[in-house]
């Protein structure tokens, strides 16, 4: 079952490292031309050069709606379209509700959720015209089950699921599919910041008895981007070693 994305352009936010970097690499291996996005142009350019296959770096702070709209336009202009949109970039600003500041709530919702809405709104026109499109939003198991200390993050990820199902219904008639990948515990810079105690507690809940790798998520995204997933839309694919079932 080969995945062939030759001729497709993929925009992956937060692809300078971690899960996004692995997704970008996998889509490029499958033949797609990939737009690498991070806040720093030089870093995005360096990753694009590593990935090859015509990949190009773009600087964008996805917390700023005007920059997100401009990003989609710039990718369409430079690479000839945006067939696959992966809303991956995300941040955490954890705290118990009692201590959570308004600005931490806003920053997480704006970066993780509003950015996806803006990017989808900008990219959908081109996809609808082509009668082919794939939108894949990276949520989290926390968006399904909640997590103490992550009310803002869990709300943003649950919001992505509602957004995705609505988009799936709006765009299905144009063969534009929208799905969610919900990772469990994946080893990246984001999770390296956790305390050893928190990591130990979490690991005990994973039936497959290991942390996931960014490549585990990349495989699921490549599948959903491919024609093998042509009859799947509005779904949440949990990739978590069996943690949530
Ligand atoms: P990392 O922190 O390792 O990487 C985050 C990426 O997002 C970087 O490429 C960073 O680029 C980019 N980014 C962050 N903020 C912005 C911004 N304002 N504008 C543009 N780009 C930004 O995260 P992960 O790879 O671990 O996570 C990727 C996604 O997967 C996130 O949405 C996360 O919530 C989700 N996830 C992760 C899990 C895990 O266990 N790791 C579990 C469940 C979900 P740069 O710094 O170069 O700007």
From TrEMBL:
Broadest EC class assigned to this enzyme: oxidoreductase
EC number(s) recorded for this UniProt protein: 1.1.1.100
Pfam families: adh_short_C2
Protein name, entry field: 3-oxoacyl-[acyl-carrier-protein] reductase
Protein origin, superkingdom: Bacteria
Protein purpose: Catalyzes the NADPH-dependent reduction of beta-ketoacyl-ACP substrates to beta-hydroxyacyl-ACP products, the first reductive step in the elongation cycle of fatty acid biosynthesis.
Molecular function (Gene Ontology), one example: NAD binding
Record bears the keyword Chloroplast: no
